Amino acid sequence: QVQLVESGGGLVQAGGSLRLSCAASGSIRSINAMGWYRQAPGKRRELVAAITRSGNTNYADSVKGRFTISRDNAKITVYLQMNSLKPEDTAVYYCNVKGLITDWQSFDSWGQGTQVTVSS
Questions:
Q1: In angstroms, rounded to a whole number, what is the distance separating the alpha carbons of residues 24 and 54?
Q2: Which residues pair with 19 in a beta bridge?
Q3: How many CB atoms lie within 10 A of CB 68?
Q4: pLDDT over 90 at 1, yes or no
Q5: CA 106 to CA 64: how far, in whole Å?
Q6: Residue 104 has what pLDDT?
């Protein structure tokens, strides 16, 4: 079983910055993709940013140039640095980690979610 613990959310004024962290633990053989999603009230959950095992990244158009995703493989942790925050970035942010528990058993785990609120 794989557990994800998120931290770093909070309330910030527009133009400010926040850094989210998500640490994975448990029976992990290897990690493939790690990513951040968000869900605003009344909206569907959407991908914000993702990073592959080799370090390739992918961002939603709405956050390109403002958010940066990174990972520390030794600590099995993924980060999301969010700069120039806008009120429309307000949402619950979830981390997602995909990988292998054994050679034939994969996992796809979600964090508990952390609230990010950007005031205008």
A1: 18
A2: 81
A3: 16
A4: no
A5: 30
A6: 92
Does residue 48 contact residue 67 with C-beta atoms inside 8 Å? Answer: yes
Q: Would you say 46 and 26 are in contact if contact means Cβ atoms under 8 Å apart? A: no
As a whole number, mean pLDDT of residues 106-114 equals 96
Q: How many CB atoms lie within 10 A of CB 6?
A: 21
Alpha-carbon gap, residue 16 to 11, rounded angstroms: 10
pLDDT tens-place string over residues 49-68: 999 999 999 999 999 999 99
Q: Which long-range contacts (CB under 8 A, 24 or more apart) does 15-20 make?
A: 15/84, 15/85, 16/85, 16/118, 17/81, 17/82, 17/83, 17/84, 17/85, 18/82, 18/85, 18/116, 19/79, 19/80, 19/81, 19/82, 20/79, 20/80, 20/82, 20/93, 20/95, 20/114, 20/116
- Mark 70-82 as b/e (b = at least 16 C-beta within 10 Å): ebeeeebbbbbeb
* Averaged pLDDT score across all residues of the chain: 96
